[in-house]
Amino acid sequence: MRSRKIRVGAVAAMAVTGLVLAGCASDDSTNEPQSAGGTWPGEGKAECEGLDQLAEFGDLTGTTVGVYTSILPPEQEAHEASYELFTTCTGAEVDYDGSDQFETQLVVRVKAGNAPDIAYIPQPGLLQTVVSSGEVVAAPTPTADNVDEFFGEDWKGYGTVDGTFYAAPLGASVKSFVWYSPKMFSDNGWDIPETWDDMLALSDEIADSGMKPWCVGIESGEATGWVATDWLEDAVLRDAGADTYDQWVNHEIAFDDPAIVESLDRVGEIMKNPDYVNGGFGDVNSIATTAFQDGGLPILDDKCAMHRQASFYAAQWPEGTKVAEDGDVFAFYLPPTNEENGKPVLGGGEFVAAFSNDPEVQAFQTYLSTDVWANEKAMATPGGGWVSANTGLDIANLTSPIDQLSAETFQDPEAVFRFDGSDQMPSAVGAGSFWKEMTAWVTGDSSEDALGNIESSWQ
């Protein structure tokens, strides 16, 4: 699962968005399911057990559902394979259209009256933008029922706009991870830290041994700085809690509120500490010029011990690197700063929005929200690199250890999930001043100055 922040198309889309997700606490209005009539093709088929909801949409033979998405090969093939059961059980075909210009072109298509049947939307702000066009239709009741059963309220809230539930979650990624070398930790007798203070104590121990405990890279072309925003978002969730995080994201409190300054200073204890960084690259200033793709690689050469980055970073390790608890590299959960705020999990994902009430479209939305599809998708992705927050996902169907760890993190009853904050902020902030000022902060600006400048940019 790629971060949508690192793609130029996402930046352009957020420039159109300029909105903050709000008003999610609501009646979750939905659509009544439509039926094509006839006998459900899945009737009596063993492979269609568990998909009885689809029967109410009738016989969909001869129909086609168009899907528009930013998910491209090689990930596309696994998605298409996971739709085969839908065709078997409904008769409807799925036409997959992947685009590297998805975020900008979706808005263009909607405005031109050429919206797709289904779009996989990777940002809550972009969902609100297309909803404001009046072209997105509410999710059918069976889809909402599945989300209530298999996803947490947080996830449903991100698919809800102004009291109406539109979009069920699809895939997901965990950002609250720290990558490390299991062998290095074992050889040195280092334990996985359970608290933030434990992590700092470990960092001190590693620094005393002569190794830099951390390596960090935030360079990402036009999106340089997004890695540092993730650090701050994770810290705010841990220090101030989910409610304050939501207020901050929605600008109900100032960007430079004292609670946010405190969290950024906490991050600075690591990222701006010359004793801690930047292993394998240079001094603190090298963080701003080190490509995020390269940020964790010094772990493989014993030049640093830890690298905070999302689950999708698994794809950045060189070919042949074993990613497992007993492998060359693995990840542990970024520990909490206190016990009061549960187990915060920062992440991202896609949401399934529909622009049609046709029964085949509603049926496909419903299929994608089931535990059955989540497991079909897992089994269709034997190489790993995909996970869902669907609690009906059997972790045994995930072949990648990091995917399994991600699913376990999502399914932890103590987990408090929050979507990436900058993806919900106005584009001038989330994809603009936030990235820029975090880069300036790394290279010398104070927490107060950097956050104050971001606050001034918020229109």
Chain-wise SSE layout:
Elements: H1 8-17, E1 64-69, H2 75-82, H3 84-90, E2 93-98, H4 102-111, E3 118-121, H5 124-131, H6 141-150, H7 153-158, E4 160-161, E5 164-165, E6 168-174, E7 177-180, H8 182-188, H9 196-208, E8 212-214, H10 226-239, H11 242-249, H12 258-271, E9 304-308, E10 330-333, E11 343-354, H13 359-368, H14 371-379, H15 401-411, E12 415-419, H16 427-442, H17 447-457
Helix pairs in contact: 1-4, 1-5, 1-16, 2-14, 6-13, 10-12, 10-16, 16-17
Protein name: Alpha-glucoside transport system substrate-binding protein
InterPro entries: Bact_solute-bd_prot1
Signal peptide: 1-22
What's this model, at a glance?
This protein is α/β, with parallel strands linked by helices and 459 residues long. It has helices spanning 8-17, 75-82, 84-90, 102-111, 124-131, 141-150, 153-158, 182-188, 196-208, 226-239, 242-249, 258-271, 359-368, 371-379, 401-411, 427-442, 447-457, and strands at 64-69, 93-98, 118-121, 160-161, 164-165, 168-174, 177-180, 212-214, 304-308, 330-333, 343-354, 415-419.
Defining key terms:
D-Maltodextrin-Binding Protein, domain 2, 459 residues, 13% strand, 12 strands, disordered N terminus, 2 domains
Characterization of this structure:
This protein is of the alpha/beta class and 459 residues long. The protein has helices spanning 8-17, 75-82, 84-90, 102-111, 124-131, 141-150, 153-158, 182-188, 196-208, 226-239, 242-249, 258-271, 359-368, 371-379, 401-411, 427-442, 447-457, and strands at 64-69, 93-98, 118-121, 160-161, 164-165, 168-174, 177-180, 212-214, 304-308, 330-333, 343-354, 415-419. It folds into two domains: 4-174 and 346-419, D-Maltodextrin-Binding Protein, domain 2 (3-Layer(aba) Sandwich), CATH 3.40.190; 177-333 and 426-457, D-Maltodextrin-Binding Protein, domain 2, CATH 3.40.190. Helix 1 (8-17) packs across helix 16 (427-442), helix 2 packs across helix 14 and helix 6 (141-150) packs parallel to helix 13. It starts with 7 loop residues before the first helix and ends with a helix. The model is unreliable at 1-26 (pLDDT under 50).
